[in-house]
Write a structure and sequence with these properties.
This protein is 63% helix and 0% strand. It is globular. It is built from eight helices and no strands. The chain is mainly alpha-helical.
Length: 132
């Protein structure tokens, strides 16, 4: 890849992660919460880059990665279910605790528990993926 193409690739990656493109930036800025989440997801659970990118799209902290790791370790959810539960999680949400508690104390099936405990924003993003 030529030098100019790298800048274009970084600009595309920055746009997808929600980071403004900044000239010839070599690495993403440390203040990019999506990237911090992406790194935490990859390091902690050995998840694929594709799942980590989906999980952290629009993240405001590393909460989605922490949630994903907890439900992978304790609930043995498959990647798609853990992604559904944890995407858009914020520190104040804690969908992993909700799911783990509800799973222990009810007979509701797993898909219903995922819908119960996932962040409200996840439903809004499904209805309005490009905004209202």
């Amino acid at each position: 890849m030529k030098r100019g193409q790298w800048r274009g690739a970084w600009g595309l990656a920055a746009t997808l992660l929600g980071v403004p493109a900044m000239g010839q930036l070599e690495e993403p800025p440390e203040s990019a919460p999506q990237y911090s989440c992406f790194e935490a997801a990859r390091e902690g659970s050995g998840v694929s880059e594709s799942i980590a990118a989906q999980l952290c799209q629009g993240a405001r902290s590393d909460a989605p990665a922490k949630c994903f790791q907890r439900v992978q370790e304790r609930a043995f959810l498959e990647d798609p279910q853990a992604l559904q539960l944890c995407q858009y999680a914020q520190p104040s949400d804690d969908p992993a605790s909700c799911f783990l508690k509800a799973r222990r104390s009810s007979f509701v099936d797993e898909p219903q528990l995922l819908l119960l405990c996932r962040p409200l924003i996840a439903d809004q993003m499904n209805m309005y993926p490009y905004g209202p």
